Hints:
Blueprint: H1 10-25, E1 32-36, E2 39-43, H2 45-51, H3 53-58, E3 70-72, H4 78-90, H5 100-109, H6 113-125, H7 132-141, H8 145-157, H9 159-165, H10 167-171, H11 175-182, H12 192-206, H13 211-218, H14 228-234, H15 244-257, E4 279-283, E5 297-300, E6 305-308, E7 317-318, E8 321-325, E9 328-332, E10 335-342, E11 345-352, E12 356-360, E13 365-369, E14 380-384, E15 387-391, E16 394-396, E17 402-405, E18 409-413, E19 418-421, E20 433-437, E21 440-444, E22 453-455, E23 470-474, E24 481-483, E25 494-498, E26 501-505, E27 516-519, E28 524-527, E29 539-542, E30 548-551, E31 554-557, E32 560-563, E33 566-571, E34 576-582, E35 591-595
Parallel strand pairs: 1-3
Antiparallel strand pairs: 1-2, 4-5, 4-35, 5-6, 7-10, 8-9, 9-12, 10-11, 12-13, 14-15, 15-18, 16-17, 17-22, 18-19, 20-21, 21-23, 23-24, 25-26, 26-27, 27-28, 29-30, 30-33, 31-32, 33-34
Amino acid sequence: MDSYSLLYSSSHRTGLLSGFQRLRSQRRMCDVVLEAGGVSFPCHRALLASSSDYFWALFGEATVERLAGSISLPALTSEGLDAILDFLYSGWLSVSSPTLPVVLEAARYLQVDPAVAICERFITEGLSAENCCCYANLAEHHALTDALEAANQTIAIEMATLLQERRDDLLRLNIQSLMAVLDADEIPAVKEVELIRLALDWLDENGPLPLLKSNLLLSHLRFGLVSPSDLTNLCHAHQAMATPLIRSQLTRALEYHRMGSAQPIRQSRQSTLRASPYRVLLVGGGSSPDWPEQQVLAFDPRCRKVSSLSSSLPLRLRNHCVCSVGGFLFVMGGEEVKDGDEDGKKSDHVATSNQVWRYDPRFNSWEKVESMLERRAQFTSCVVEDVIYAIGGRHTGQDPDAYTSVASVEFYDMATGAWRRGAVMPHPLYGHASAVLNNSIYVSGGHPGNQDICNHNETLDDNRESSREVFSWDLKGRVWEKRAPMSIARFGHRLAAAHGHIYALLGMYEPFCDIEQYDSVSDHWTRLRPLLIGSFNYGMVTTPSGNLLVFGGRRWSDGQEVIVKSVLEYDTKKDRWREICQLPRPLSGTECTLLPLPD
Length: 599
């Protein structure tokens, strides 16, 4: 058998379409005329049938139109039909924002799926505040799933602008899109009460709706994000708010506001902020180690920008602890720094505090909650199953110039709003660090105090008094157990849990910059890549991706301590450090936690 070759010409297909287009423009060999909007379009039956399922069926063997010389398409406009015919003959689709509705209608009616896909891509790639509502209605009408989802997301992101400048577009929005938007987790810079008013205005504009649909629409609102006074007014704002289902949701929202200390552990979707997944809050600290600031900074890891909360910390604190539970920020203990006068001279007065303050980002408000049982500074805190634990630390005694270290542990029972005693540590400890892994608390390092009084002016010029010890405590055993010690004695350091391991980072006055990783299964510490330049008194947080972010701190430079403003990121998987940005100003002594915040 003779051999042969099978070769392909890429130009033949293009030439074939060009030939048909030339014949059409010259009106030669056309065997059917399509009519729409009073305009006639001579065409070739074979090309139409091979390019469109609609024409394939229309020119079938058993149809009246099979041999018809002229076919009217009253459902289409001449502009839409012309664009689709040009596409069938050339492969090019001419579409713009004004012509999109008629072109998409023609493509959908004639079942030209490639043209429909082009229109959907045109919608998705061209979304803006000016057209997102119109495009959402268009996508919903033609069942363009991807375009509809993209349009709904754009509406949610641009809601603040739309409410101010294009409210009529929102009132003409289809109900599926409105429900999807009201279900969004992020609607920047818009208060929930504004969304409620929008939904009620939409019902007035598009009603009356069946009770089921009205209830379904309003059920996507989050009444727990509305103040009690506004909730009371909303009960009488519209007849749709008087249905048994909606009244029950309003009642639950009012009950949520009356829960007090239990609010963080009674969270539901209706009380969850429509906010970015998380921000890093930098609480306390400042450009001077002796004079902490009350301003609270918020760092957005997505854009690496820093902003300030409009509401400041009620106290000037240092050596305090912070954590977040249920979307609330808790600030505990520390040393409160106040202005004072001594012998006519201005001075700073420092006192150890047991106060606990709670910040609610829903209403940008601070509330003083039940104080800890003991005054604590240079202690550590952590959260296990929505329970806050305060561990060790030290406080001033009768002599304000001396400190006493403690081994006590207490935890905050949010259901009752009270602090309760926990399992005491093996010995007093301050300047230590903690992390939570698999619902177990790990505590490392610090200064193993012995209840003796030590002068607070004492400085740790080396780490001989620091500890390498590691203890763990779990919910089941409720006993402190000794674990493998760190390879380095550390004081004022940080622990972090990520990807099933614990990481110990730099403390005060360490001669090296090493960090180490703990494996709880093998009970073993491993040295990792050190920082190029050591620092201490920094803030640190673990991101959801498992990376560590380090904010500011102090370091030695030319024999002097300097406060830095760098933001470092440690990739725990790649064991790699890098500086990602800088803070607006130097910062030392800040405490960090993750918290969702409204934009």
